[in-house]
Design goal:
Length: 287
């Protein structure tokens, strides 16, 4: 991963190990690795203090155990102005003491991004390829007890799109305290590429479910965003929710985009999408 001083998408890869094996994981897990903590601590000490945002990602960062807290403490010390986002499956926070240790760090600007792929254990656990649904839910509640800032995420593909409206109801009823909900188009790399026949659906074909989901959450004053989807396949009423979410180092545009009046507003594509994107992509005109 590259560090770019002015990028809003910098992230630390803290481990490549994981306790899930999600069908669409862009970063397949490894079984063994050298501990990356020392090198990451060094990197944090060298980063520009003006870094606006830093992701902490993996793999599953909580598999580092207490080393994760060393990383977050170092960020607090060397990068006091930087917003941190910890991307975790939340399973480890089922352990009340572990959640408490995180809260005790009192990082002033930490968000914990946790994926929930369905409103049922059957479907969520099928996607993550292990039994994690109830552990993740307990983890979310433990973190909420300690007043941590939580974001819920999902990746939209053939196995998740149909239940999106029910998923939204589930989140609203059970986790009304979350600060953000992210609905993400799929990056077609890693295991997603391997399982592409099971997972791929043209994003255009799930727009009606996406629209219902976003409307439902927005009407209930939940803070909701759409990541990784292009403006030309989204109805205009969804545009205010679309974010330019793809990290600059893997963000591309297609030939069609050169003629598009909304090129600058649109988030474009993952570089891995070169040969796998909606067939409804088309340049837009302002009038
Ligand atoms: S044509 Fe390209 S730049 Fe324009 S909205 Fe579509 S994807 Fe975005």
């Amino acid at each position: 991963m590259l560090y770019e001083k002015n990028s809003l998408h910098n992230a630390l890869m803290v481990t490549e190990r994981c306790n899930c094996n999600c069908l669409m994981c862009p970063q397949p897990r490894v079984k063994e690795e050298e501990n990356k903590t020392e090198i990451n601590l060094k990197l944090i000490s060298l980063m520009d203090k003006a870094t606006k945002y830093l992701g902490i990602t993996g793999g599953e960062p909580t598999l580092m155990g207490d080393d994760l807290f060393k990383i977050i403490s170092a960020c607090k010390k060397y990068l006091p102005e930087t917003a941190l986002e910890l991307l975790t499956n939340g399973i480890q926070f089922e352990n009340f003491e572990y959640a408490k240790k995180l809260a005790c760090l009192e990082h002033p600007n930490l968000t914990i991004g946790i994926p929930l792929y369905a409103d049922t254990d059957l479907e969520h656990d099928h996607i993550i390829q292990t039994k994690g649904f109830y552990k993740t839910i307990q983890g979310i509640y433990n973190l909420a007890l300690f007043k941590q800032k939580i974001e819920i995420r999902t990746v939209i593909h053939r196995l998740t799109y149909e239940r999106l409206p029910k998923w939204a109801e589930f989140i609203y009823h059970n986790f009304p305290f979350v600060i953000h909900i992210a609905l993400m188009g799929m990056e077609t790399i890693g295991l997603a590429r391997k399982n592409i026949d099971r997972l791929w659906i043209d994003p255009y074909d799930y727009i009606s479910q996406l629209e219902k989901t976003v409307e439902y959450l927005d009407q209930r004053l939940m803070n909701v965003s759409i990541y990784n989807l292009q403006l030309c396949i989204l109805p205009r009423d969804l545009w205010p929710f679309a974010r330019k979410s793809i990290s600059s180092w893997k963000n591309i545009y297609l030939e069609e985009c050169q003629q598009c009046d909304f090129h600058d507003e649109c988030g474009g594509f993952f570089s891995s999408s070169k040969d796998k994107y909606s067939k409804y992509i088309h340049p837009l005109r302002r009038n």
